[in-house]
Amino acid sequence: MDDLKDNLLKKYAQGNLASVYLAKYPEHTNAVAWAQDFLSSITKLKDHPDVLWVERTEENEYKVESPGILAVFKFLNYRAFELKKKFIFINDAHLLSTIVSNKLLKVFEELPENFCLFLFAPQDQNLLPTVESRAIKVLLPQDLSGVDYDAPLPTYASAQELVASLKKSEDDYLEEKKFIEEALIKTLKSGNFKECSDTLESLKHYQVSDAFNNSKLARLSLLFK
Fold first, then answer.
1. Contact, 55 vs 68, CB < 8 A?
2. Strands (E), the chain
3. In the β-sheet with 115-122, what is the strand arrangement from edge to edge?
4. How far is the C-alpha of 144 from the C-alpha of 188, rounded, in Å?
5. How far is CA 70 from CA 42, 53, 64, 137, in A?
6. Measured between alpha carbons, how far is 125 from 92 in angstroms, rounded to an integer?
7. Which of 8, 47, 142, 162 stands 20 to 30 A from 84 (CA)?
């Protein structure tokens, strides 16, 4: 059951949707899929003229000249065609540049009453404090339906081998967290109490090591016996 979606749909029906929402999403959750599901309860049209989807192309971050950002300012000039609200969904909002974020602050303050803007960002990523302070924060429900818990995790003979593998990824810190999270879930699903206890103890020391900014190799060595 998606209580958040039901609550927002009720607010939409009553005309009480807020102007700006910051929707954080946990690991394994597809924010765009959630938004499409939310909209499907409002309109059956896949490409509705009252809905604007903003996504990055090949850019590392949104810039003033990014097509999606330019489209936002153009979209604001028109009234709603059919729906009670015109919706703007900005994916990867944590990658808004500082300049774009500051420009959007003015948009937030002057957003017409018939507009509703959603900013989507991973749960562990922050936006500018000034942006976050102007949005109502919500957390999307975690979607684990596509997670294959029986799929084998990559095996590494040592922490050195794991660190070398992580360095090849685009975001090694995120991949490190993902590897640890999936390893913990698999351990918990095994039902082996001693194995779970040992894993949790290792993670406790790993967290302390991370808090003291120890090297990646030193942190991950704690997970290898």
1. yes
2. 20-25, 51-54, 86-90, 115-122, 136-139
3. 51-54, 86-90, 115-122, 20-25, 136-139
4. 15
5. 26, 12, 7, 25
6. 10
7. 142
For residue 93, which amino acid is it? A
Which residues is 121 bridged to in the sheet? Answer: 24
Distance, in Å, from the CA atom of 169 to the CA atom of 176, rounded to the nearest integer, reads 10
Is-contact 137 24, C-beta < 8 A?
A: yes
In the chain, domain spans: 3-139, 159-221
Single-letter amino acid, residue 85: K
CA distance 89 to 119: 6
DSSP secondary structure string, 138-159?
EEPPP--TT--TTSPPPP-SSH
CB 90 within 8 A of CB 54: yes
Helices (H) and strands (E) in the chain, counts: 9, 5
Give average pLDDT by consecutive 10-residue segment, the chain, 225 residues.
88 93 89 93 92 87 93 92 94 94 89 92 91 93 62 64 71 72 73 78 76 75 72
Type and span of the H or E element at 161? helix 159-166
Tell me the residue length of the chain: 225
Whether the CB-CB separation of 76 and 112 falls below 8 Å is answered with yes
- Write the CB contacts of 114 (distance below 8 Å, at least 6 apart in sequence): 79, 80, 84, 85, 86
